[in-house]
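Revision sheet: C-alpha coordinates.
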Amino acid sequence: MTQHAGEHPDDARTQRALVIGEALIDVVARADGSREDHPGGSPANVALGLGRLGRAVDLLTWLGDDAAGEQVRRHLAASHVHVLTGDRVAARTPRATAHLDAAGVATYEFDLEWDLPSTWDGDDVAPLVAHTGSIAAVLEPGGSRVAEVMARLRPTSTVTYDPNLRPALMGSPAHALPYVDAMVALADVVKVSDEDLAWLHPGVAPAEIAEEWTRRGPAVVVVTHGGEGAFAATAAGARLQVTAPRVTVADTVGAGDSFMGGLVDGLWSAGLLGADRRDALHDVDATTVEDVLARCARIAAITVSRAGANPPTSAELG
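Predicted:
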Protein backbone atom coordinates (compact mmCIF):
# COMPACT_ATOMS: atom_id res chain seq x y z
CA MET A 1 0.00 0.00 0.00
CA THR A 2 1.33 3.44 -0.89
CA GLN A 3 1.76 5.73 2.10
CA HIS A 4 0.83 9.30 1.20
CA ALA A 5 2.17 12.43 2.88
CA GLY A 6 0.56 12.88 6.28
CA GLU A 7 -0.68 9.27 6.47
CA HIS A 8 0.65 6.64 8.85
CA PRO A 9 0.06 2.88 8.67
CA ASP A 10 -1.39 1.34 11.83
CA ASP A 11 1.77 -0.53 12.78
CA ALA A 12 3.77 2.71 12.56
CA ARG A 13 1.15 4.66 14.49
CA THR A 14 1.51 2.32 17.50
CA GLN A 15 5.13 3.48 17.72
CA ARG A 16 4.12 7.13 17.76
CA ALA A 17 3.59 9.69 20.48
CA LEU A 18 0.21 11.38 20.76
CA VAL A 19 0.23 14.84 22.32
CA ILE A 20 -3.15 16.32 23.25
CA GLY A 21 -3.37 20.02 23.99
CA GLU A 22 -3.34 23.61 22.94
CA ALA A 23 -1.47 25.08 20.00
CA LEU A 24 -1.68 28.83 19.57
CA ILE A 25 -0.01 32.04 18.52
CA ASP A 26 2.36 33.40 21.15
CA VAL A 27 2.88 37.15 21.19
CA VAL A 28 6.15 37.88 22.98
CA ALA A 29 6.23 41.35 24.53
CA ARG A 30 9.75 42.15 25.70
CA ALA A 31 10.82 44.55 28.42
CA ASP A 32 12.33 46.90 25.79
CA GLY A 33 8.90 47.33 24.18
CA SER A 34 9.49 45.09 21.16
CA ARG A 35 6.91 42.46 20.17
CA GLU A 36 6.93 39.41 17.93
CA ASP A 37 4.47 36.65 17.06
CA HIS A 38 5.28 32.97 16.72
CA PRO A 39 3.47 29.63 17.17
CA GLY A 40 3.43 28.15 20.67
CA GLY A 41 1.34 26.41 23.31
CA SER A 42 2.80 24.10 25.94
CA PRO A 43 1.67 20.72 24.54
CA ALA A 44 2.45 21.87 20.98
CA ASN A 45 5.96 22.76 22.16
CA VAL A 46 6.34 19.27 23.65
CA ALA A 47 5.31 17.77 20.32
CA LEU A 48 7.75 20.09 18.54
CA GLY A 49 10.58 18.97 20.82
CA LEU A 50 9.80 15.31 20.22
CA GLY A 51 9.69 15.86 16.47
CA ARG A 52 13.09 17.56 16.54
CA LEU A 53 14.48 14.66 18.56
CA GLY A 54 13.45 12.31 15.76
CA ARG A 55 10.27 10.86 17.27
CA ALA A 56 7.11 10.22 15.28
CA VAL A 57 4.50 12.44 16.91
CA ASP A 58 0.86 13.39 16.37
CA LEU A 59 -0.77 16.48 17.88
CA LEU A 60 -4.48 16.60 18.67
CA THR A 61 -5.36 20.25 19.14
CA TRP A 62 -7.98 22.98 18.53
CA LEU A 63 -7.00 25.37 15.74
CA GLY A 64 -9.10 27.60 13.53
CA ASP A 65 -9.27 27.42 9.74
CA ASP A 66 -7.63 30.83 9.55
CA ALA A 67 -4.28 32.37 8.69
CA ALA A 68 -3.01 31.97 12.27
CA GLY A 69 -3.99 28.30 12.27
CA GLU A 70 -2.16 27.75 9.01
CA GLN A 71 0.92 29.47 10.47
CA VAL A 72 0.85 27.07 13.42
CA ARG A 73 0.39 24.01 11.20
CA ARG A 74 3.32 24.99 8.94
CA HIS A 75 5.54 25.62 11.96
CA LEU A 76 4.80 22.20 13.44
CA ALA A 77 5.10 20.38 10.13
CA ALA A 78 8.59 21.84 9.68
CA SER A 79 9.62 19.87 12.80
CA HIS A 80 7.84 16.69 11.65
CA VAL A 81 4.76 17.06 13.87
CA HIS A 82 1.59 15.64 12.30
CA VAL A 83 -1.42 17.77 13.30
CA LEU A 84 -4.44 15.48 13.38
CA THR A 85 -7.53 16.35 11.38
CA GLY A 86 -10.81 16.24 13.30
CA ASP A 87 -14.50 16.60 12.59
CA ARG A 88 -14.67 20.04 14.27
CA VAL A 89 -12.33 23.04 14.46
CA ALA A 90 -12.07 26.19 16.54
CA ALA A 91 -13.87 29.36 15.47
CA ARG A 92 -10.49 31.10 15.60
CA THR A 93 -6.94 30.14 16.48
CA PRO A 94 -6.07 30.87 20.15
CA ARG A 95 -3.59 33.58 21.12
CA ALA A 96 -1.39 34.10 24.19
CA THR A 97 0.78 37.07 25.13
CA ALA A 98 3.98 36.41 27.06
CA HIS A 99 5.22 39.50 28.88
CA LEU A 100 8.96 39.17 29.53
CA ASP A 101 10.64 40.99 32.40
CA ALA A 102 14.22 42.27 32.31
CA ALA A 103 15.49 38.78 33.23
CA GLY A 104 13.54 37.16 30.40
CA VAL A 105 11.00 35.47 32.70
CA ALA A 106 7.52 35.21 31.17
CA THR A 107 4.04 35.92 32.55
CA TYR A 108 1.03 35.19 30.35
CA GLU A 109 -2.37 36.48 29.29
CA PHE A 110 -4.69 34.55 26.98
CA ASP A 111 -7.43 34.95 24.38
CA LEU A 112 -8.60 31.43 23.64
CA GLU A 113 -11.22 28.72 23.86
CA TRP A 114 -10.32 25.05 24.28
CA ASP A 115 -12.15 21.95 23.07
CA LEU A 116 -11.47 18.74 21.14
CA PRO A 117 -12.98 17.35 17.97
CA SER A 118 -15.39 14.44 18.49
CA THR A 119 -13.42 12.20 16.12
CA TRP A 120 -10.06 12.52 14.40
CA ASP A 121 -7.95 10.56 11.95
CA GLY A 122 -6.44 7.51 13.62
CA ASP A 123 -8.48 7.79 16.83
CA ASP A 124 -9.00 4.02 16.83
CA VAL A 125 -5.28 3.18 17.14
CA ALA A 126 -3.45 3.59 20.45
CA PRO A 127 -0.09 5.38 20.52
CA LEU A 128 2.96 4.17 22.42
CA VAL A 129 2.77 7.21 24.70
CA ALA A 130 0.11 9.89 25.24
CA HIS A 131 1.01 13.27 26.72
CA THR A 132 -1.11 16.19 27.89
CA GLY A 133 -0.97 19.13 30.25
CA SER A 134 -1.33 22.83 30.86
CA ILE A 135 -4.48 24.61 29.64
CA ALA A 136 -5.79 21.54 27.84
CA ALA A 137 -6.17 19.51 31.04
CA VAL A 138 -8.11 22.20 32.95
CA LEU A 139 -10.00 24.64 30.71
CA GLU A 140 -13.53 23.50 29.86
CA PRO A 141 -15.19 22.23 27.80
CA GLY A 142 -12.06 20.49 26.54
CA GLY A 143 -10.52 19.63 29.91
CA SER A 144 -13.01 16.91 30.79
CA ARG A 145 -12.76 15.44 27.29
CA VAL A 146 -8.96 15.30 27.53
CA ALA A 147 -9.25 13.33 30.77
CA GLU A 148 -11.67 10.91 29.10
CA VAL A 149 -9.31 10.33 26.17
CA MET A 150 -6.31 9.80 28.43
CA ALA A 151 -8.25 7.34 30.60
CA ARG A 152 -9.27 5.45 27.46
CA LEU A 153 -5.65 5.25 26.29
CA ARG A 154 -4.11 4.22 29.61
CA PRO A 155 -4.67 0.44 29.19
CA THR A 156 -2.54 0.52 26.02
CA SER A 157 -0.25 3.55 26.32
CA THR A 158 2.12 5.23 28.74
CA VAL A 159 0.49 8.43 30.03
CA THR A 160 2.62 11.50 30.72
CA TYR A 161 1.49 14.81 32.20
CA ASP A 162 2.84 18.29 32.86
CA PRO A 163 0.44 20.58 34.82
CA ASN A 164 2.22 23.73 33.51
CA LEU A 165 -0.36 25.86 35.28
CA ARG A 166 -1.65 29.22 34.00
CA PRO A 167 -3.36 31.06 36.89
CA ALA A 168 -4.63 33.76 34.51
CA LEU A 169 -6.86 31.13 32.89
CA MET A 170 -7.32 28.52 35.59
CA GLY A 171 -8.73 30.61 38.41
CA SER A 172 -7.81 29.70 41.97
CA PRO A 173 -5.66 26.76 43.11
CA ALA A 174 -8.82 25.27 44.61
CA HIS A 175 -10.41 25.24 41.15
CA ALA A 176 -7.38 23.76 39.36
CA LEU A 177 -6.40 21.20 41.99
CA PRO A 178 -9.11 18.56 41.25
CA TYR A 179 -8.08 18.53 37.58
CA VAL A 180 -4.42 18.19 38.50
CA ASP A 181 -5.08 15.44 41.06
CA ALA A 182 -7.18 13.47 38.56
CA MET A 183 -4.47 13.61 35.90
CA VAL A 184 -1.72 12.72 38.37
CA ALA A 185 -3.69 9.60 39.29
CA LEU A 186 -3.92 8.64 35.58
CA ALA A 187 -0.30 9.39 34.72
CA ASP A 188 2.74 7.13 34.63
CA VAL A 189 5.15 10.07 34.44
CA VAL A 190 4.62 13.61 35.76
CA LYS A 191 6.86 16.63 35.23
CA VAL A 192 5.96 19.71 37.28
CA SER A 193 7.74 22.98 38.07
CA ASP A 194 8.47 24.19 41.58
CA GLU A 195 6.45 27.34 40.71
CA ASP A 196 3.39 25.22 39.88
CA LEU A 197 3.68 23.37 43.19
CA ALA A 198 4.12 26.60 45.15
CA TRP A 199 0.86 27.88 43.64
CA LEU A 200 -1.05 24.65 44.23
CA HIS A 201 0.38 23.83 47.68
CA PRO A 202 1.94 26.96 49.21
CA GLY A 203 4.41 26.27 51.98
CA VAL A 204 4.84 22.57 51.20
CA ALA A 205 8.26 21.35 50.05
CA PRO A 206 8.23 20.30 46.37
CA ALA A 207 10.06 17.05 47.15
CA GLU A 208 7.39 16.15 49.68
CA ILE A 209 4.66 16.60 47.08
CA ALA A 210 6.60 14.62 44.48
CA GLU A 211 7.01 11.72 46.88
CA GLU A 212 3.31 11.82 47.77
CA TRP A 213 2.36 11.80 44.09
CA THR A 214 4.40 8.64 43.45
CA ARG A 215 2.10 6.90 45.94
CA ARG A 216 -0.94 7.79 43.80
CA GLY A 217 0.14 5.92 40.68
CA PRO A 218 2.97 7.61 38.74
CA ALA A 219 6.21 5.67 38.37
CA VAL A 220 8.28 8.87 38.09
CA VAL A 221 7.62 12.42 39.28
CA VAL A 222 10.09 15.13 38.27
CA VAL A 223 10.14 18.62 39.78
CA THR A 224 12.04 21.23 37.77
CA HIS A 225 13.74 24.12 39.56
CA GLY A 226 14.66 26.32 36.60
CA GLY A 227 18.36 27.06 36.48
CA GLU A 228 18.93 25.02 39.62
CA GLY A 229 18.16 21.70 37.90
CA ALA A 230 15.59 19.07 38.77
CA PHE A 231 14.56 16.60 41.47
CA ALA A 232 12.99 13.21 40.82
CA ALA A 233 11.14 10.73 42.99
CA THR A 234 10.26 7.25 41.74
CA ALA A 235 7.74 4.69 42.90
CA ALA A 236 10.70 2.32 43.34
CA GLY A 237 12.06 4.59 46.06
CA ALA A 238 14.81 6.54 44.27
CA ARG A 239 15.33 10.20 45.16
CA LEU A 240 17.83 12.12 43.06
CA GLN A 241 18.87 15.59 41.96
CA VAL A 242 20.48 16.79 38.73
CA THR A 243 22.04 20.18 38.11
CA ALA A 244 21.40 22.38 35.10
CA PRO A 245 24.19 23.53 32.77
CA ARG A 246 25.09 27.20 33.19
CA VAL A 247 24.15 29.26 30.14
CA THR A 248 23.34 32.85 29.27
CA VAL A 249 19.53 33.04 29.30
CA ALA A 250 17.78 34.66 26.35
CA ASP A 251 14.34 33.84 27.79
CA THR A 252 12.61 30.94 29.52
CA VAL A 253 9.81 30.45 26.95
CA GLY A 254 9.39 26.74 26.23
CA ALA A 255 12.09 25.58 28.64
CA GLY A 256 9.81 23.29 30.64
CA ASP A 257 8.19 21.98 27.47
CA SER A 258 11.54 21.05 25.94
CA PHE A 259 12.49 19.34 29.23
CA MET A 260 9.21 17.37 29.04
CA GLY A 261 9.89 16.34 25.45
CA GLY A 262 13.34 15.21 26.48
CA LEU A 263 11.86 13.19 29.33
CA VAL A 264 9.51 11.29 27.01
CA ASP A 265 12.32 10.80 24.49
CA GLY A 266 14.74 9.53 27.13
CA LEU A 267 12.30 6.99 28.55
CA TRP A 268 11.50 5.93 24.98
CA SER A 269 15.21 5.29 24.31
CA ALA A 270 15.39 3.30 27.55
CA GLY A 271 12.61 0.99 26.34
CA LEU A 272 10.24 2.04 29.12
CA LEU A 273 7.21 3.29 27.17
CA GLY A 274 4.01 1.43 26.33
CA ALA A 275 1.50 -0.08 28.74
CA ASP A 276 3.28 -3.44 28.49
CA ARG A 277 6.36 -1.73 30.00
CA ARG A 278 4.48 -0.18 32.93
CA ASP A 279 5.94 -2.61 35.48
CA ALA A 280 9.45 -1.99 34.18
CA LEU A 281 8.89 1.77 34.40
CA HIS A 282 7.76 1.40 38.02
CA ASP A 283 10.95 -0.55 38.76
CA VAL A 284 13.26 1.87 36.91
CA ASP A 285 16.68 2.24 38.54
CA ALA A 286 18.08 5.55 39.74
CA THR A 287 20.98 5.53 37.26
CA THR A 288 18.62 5.36 34.28
CA VAL A 289 16.51 8.21 35.64
CA GLU A 290 19.58 10.31 36.38
CA ASP A 291 20.95 9.82 32.86
CA VAL A 292 17.60 10.78 31.31
CA LEU A 293 17.25 13.88 33.50
CA ALA A 294 20.80 15.06 32.79
CA ARG A 295 19.98 15.02 29.08
CA CYS A 296 16.67 16.80 29.74
CA ALA A 297 18.53 19.53 31.62
CA ARG A 298 20.90 19.95 28.69
CA ILE A 299 17.96 20.20 26.27
CA ALA A 300 16.29 22.86 28.43
CA ALA A 301 19.57 24.78 28.77
CA ILE A 302 19.93 24.98 24.99
CA THR A 303 16.31 26.17 24.72
CA VAL A 304 16.74 29.03 27.23
CA SER A 305 19.97 30.11 25.56
CA ARG A 306 18.02 31.28 22.51
CA ALA A 307 14.85 33.26 22.00
CA GLY A 308 11.43 31.65 22.05
CA ALA A 309 10.36 28.02 22.24
CA ASN A 310 13.20 26.71 20.08
CA PRO A 311 14.27 23.28 21.36
CA PRO A 312 17.33 21.50 19.96
CA THR A 313 17.40 18.76 17.36
CA SER A 314 18.97 15.37 17.97
CA ALA A 315 21.87 16.47 15.74
CA GLU A 316 22.55 19.47 17.99
CA LEU A 317 22.72 17.18 21.02
CA GLY A 318 25.31 15.01 19.29
